[in-house]
Amino acid sequence: MGIKVKVNFDKRKLESAIKDQARESLRNRSYDAKCPFCHTTFSAHPGPNVCPHCRKTVDLNLNIKL
């Protein structure tokens, strides 16, 4: 006597969910960035940041290709 189990598996949905989770994780962390104006290295999040040294706005853009 055996048990048969049928699993509906959508590979594209799984891949999409994994990629979405990876993108979200990358967007929520901080990165070491170098100010293009004064060349100070500081911790930055994606989007606009203010350099702690020169107080100029530095925009950190992520180009995520998964």
Could you list some keywords that capture this structure?
4 strands, two-stranded antiparallel sheet, single chain, 1 helix, alpha+beta, 66 residues
How would you sum up this structure, described in words?
- With 66 residues, the protein is an alpha+beta fold.
- It has a domain at 27-66.
- It has one helix and four strands, in the order H-E-E-E-E.
- It has a two-stranded antiparallel ribbon with strand order 1-2.
- The radius of gyration is 21 Å and the shape is rod-shaped.
- The model has no long low-confidence stretch (mean pLDDT 92).
- It comes from Blautia parvula.
Quick summary:
This is Adenylate kinase. The protein is built from one helix and four strands.
Computed Rg: 21 Å
Amount of beta strand: 15-25%
Identify the strand order in the major beta sheet: 1-2
Structural class: alpha+beta
| Helix amount | 25-40%
The shape is rod-shaped
Blueprint (SSEs and pairs):
Elements: H1 11-27, E1 31-34, E2 41-44, E3 47-50, E4 57-60
Antiparallel strand pairs: 1-2, 3-4
